[in-house]
From TrEMBL:
This is GTPase Era. One of its GO terms (cellular component) is plasma membrane. The gene is era. Residues 9-16 are annotated as: G1. Residues 1-166 form the Era-type G domain.
Length: 166
């Protein structure tokens, strides 16, 4: 298995943290500031039977229509067209308008996985099912994978779901 994997989502959901943890080095820039990742950043994970090329993307935003945001959104749209698998990263329990704005751009069907990040920070674990059901009703995702990018939880499961689609 070998292929390109885009990591998309609104600012601050943990896209760069996920890319870093998956690849195992600091290839991307993690920050509280929304616009730290301005360009696509590629990182490669090579294993015995698989090779994944991860494409980190800027946080998708449409609210502020400035030239910088238009440029960054174009980067996201391009990244989505070029890859084999799309990881739409959201934050456990915190769905917002920024997440919803990305939905029309996501490829439909078997290419797009919903990655629910920051499960370590979720206070009410029972709320997870309702949260995920709500999002799954909005887009035909191929699968859902809850993870903690920061703590490295469930990443093997995530890579398995990706590998199935390469
Ligand atoms: P990006 O804007 O989507 O690339 O988000 P970043 O990777 O820059 O992360 C934004 C913030 O969320 C940083 O403070 C991260 O440390 C934090 N973060 C990322 N992943 C996790 C996680 O799994 N759990 C928790 N608790 N925080 C996380
Ligand atoms: Mg980032």
């Amino acid at each position: 298995h070998c292929g390109f994997v885009a990591i998309v989502g609104r600012p601050n959901v943990g896209k760069s943290t996920l890319a870093n943890t998956l690849i195992g080095s600091k290839i991307s820039i993690v920050s509280r500031k929304a616009q730290t990742t301005r360009h696509r950043i590629h990182g490669v994970l090579t294993r015995e039977h698989e090779q994944f090329v991860f494409v980190d993307t800027p946080g998708f935003q449409t609210r502020h229509g400035g030239a910088m945001n238009r440029m960054m959104n174009r980067v996201v749209t391009q990244a989505l067209a070029d890859v084999d698998v799309v990881l739409h990263v959201v934050e456990a329990g915190k769905w917002s308008a920024g997440d919803a704005q990305l939905l029309p751009l996501l490829p439909k069907g078997d290419k797009t996985l919903l990655v629910v990040n920051k499960v370590d920070a979720l206070k009410d674990k029972n709320a997870m099912f309702a949260y995920v059901s709500k999002i799954m009703a909005l887009h035909p995702y191929a699968a859902v994978v809850p993870v903690s990018a920061l703590r490295g939880v469930q990443l093997e499961n995530l890579l398995g779901e990706v590998a199935k689609r390469l």
